[in-house]
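Support reply, case 0932

Customer input (verbatim):
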Amino acid sequence: MKTNLIRKAYLDFFRSKNHAIIPSASLLPENDPTTLFTGSGMQPMVPYLLGEKHPLGKRIADSQKSFRAQDIEDVGDNRHTTFFEMLGNWSLGDYFKKEQISWIFEFLTQVLKLDPRRLYVSVYQGNSKINIDPDQEAVKIWQQQFKKVNIQAQTVKNASKKGMGKGRIFFYDENENWWSRAGVPDNMPIGEPGGPDSEIFWDFKASRQIHEDSIYKDQPCHPACDCGRFLEIGNNVFMQYLKTKNGFKPLENKNIDFGGGLERLAAAIQDDPDMFNIDLFKPLKKELEKLSQKQYQLNQKTTRAFRIIMDHIRAAVFLISDGAGPSNKDQGYFTRRLIRRGIRSAHQLNIQDNFTQNLARSIIKIYEKPYPGLKNNQNLILDALKKEETGFKKTLNQGLKKFEQLRKKQKHIDGQQAFDLYQSYGFPIEMTQELAQEHGIKVDLQAFKQAQKNHQKISRQGAQKKFKGGLADQQKSTIQLHTAAHLLLAALKKILGHHVKQKGANITAERLRFDFSHPAKLTEQEIKETQQYVNEIIEKNLPVKMREISIEQAREQNITGEFNDRYQNLVKIYTIGSYSQEICGGPHVKNTNELGKFQIIKQQSAGAGVRRIKAILE
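Our regenerated output:
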């Protein structure tokens, strides 16, 4: 069963169980300032798991796009990816363990036709210190399910010391089988919900003797070990407790949160522990084999390079589509790092031609039905990749030569040298660290950070000699156009989409010049609607309000603006009604009625993926 069919089968199955199917949320969280990315299927559902009512009811299911930046350096083995899809179903105070366990067992064994003899599960062993018993309820339900297929599911405790034995159900502590946003029970604040979970594992042993060939061969094997024999394919979270000042008490409305890795399920179905052999990666593998004239499984180094490229470019395509184009800030920094790490791996394969756009086209085609936004944003994606690849490849060879010169002369890379590789050759510090690790040398990270701070200080001193915010002066007409620039950004986001980001501005007393991210020339209708939207705001006679808040508060409130080192503890926030809220140094008019009529007089390209608008106030 191909991956797209697995996704469809899952959603159809839970639709038949009266679940409302919701679309995937963006990879860029809209109302969660605690993280840069959506890293799990649960993340967008947290408000409803905490008690808020979902508009579609108590039973929800979806396939959620997810990205985990912390896994970047792990990519290259047979199971780690940065981007993945998480199949999820939730009960918001409705059904609980009996229905969840029986349904997921039915889906795995009857819909996906996975051999139940190759399935193993884990449950929470309990903790007497917090007065929570072992999850015997889950054990009993699992045993009933396995009994239906003539399997006697024995339980095992202390498997990490004793091994598997003849066990089918394994007890683990809170480090393995407890879920809360804060982690283990001891870390949970008062008022935080959480509970035990029950993970499901697929055993590859029957088809490949991975465990016996691994470094773990002399250690006891069990489902939660890292030997490679088992793959976790799903996790049932039973949110049933609330932490209070007197310990834990049962929640009145218990919730279910299931998450199953789509790509992992595909690997289990085809019974191949190499996740990069599933159908989603085959077109990418074929393209890379053609470009490199090397086979995917030629040797360990080649296989690793293939995996890094396939994962990283796939993740970058989705991130760019959701608004995180490559940059040196926030989410865009990780997009840039992914692309450049992929380009470096392509260099190792001796791929000379530009390749990212070809891979991106294949990725968009693979996902165009479940994620039509990729097709809609194709030009934006391709332009961003082309610009990034072209720019980085110009300096990659020079940077690698510079690194080689340094490593041959010394046993470490000092901070200034690491910063020069970043500043002059575009090497993210992580890339320099990886190169150094490959050659057994060290990088002085603290000295790198200091060199970076010194550079930023010099840059700020230079910037003080220029006009703030791109303003040529502080005449009345210049200030009016500055306020109009804020309204223009709001209008462009409204008309074109939230991928629009300000890329620069230059404002004189005569005109406003505004650069922004967008892949295509604006149509006459889009220009007309943008002008109209700005003028409608102006006509509302809205006050332009300013307040000062901490940079942390600005982050938490998702206020528009780049969060970087030039900001001190307090930042100024200028707000215009419900239309515009931005970090800005000012100055601005006091009311939109001071602006007059806004008119766009010209548009043009300002580089790959960047458009420029010139406008006036009449």
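We compared this against your earlier run and they match. Two observations from our side: Residues 131 and 248 are 8 Å apart (CA to CA). The chain has four domains: 3-276, 278-394, 410-465, 469-617. Please reopen the case if you see a mismatch on your end.
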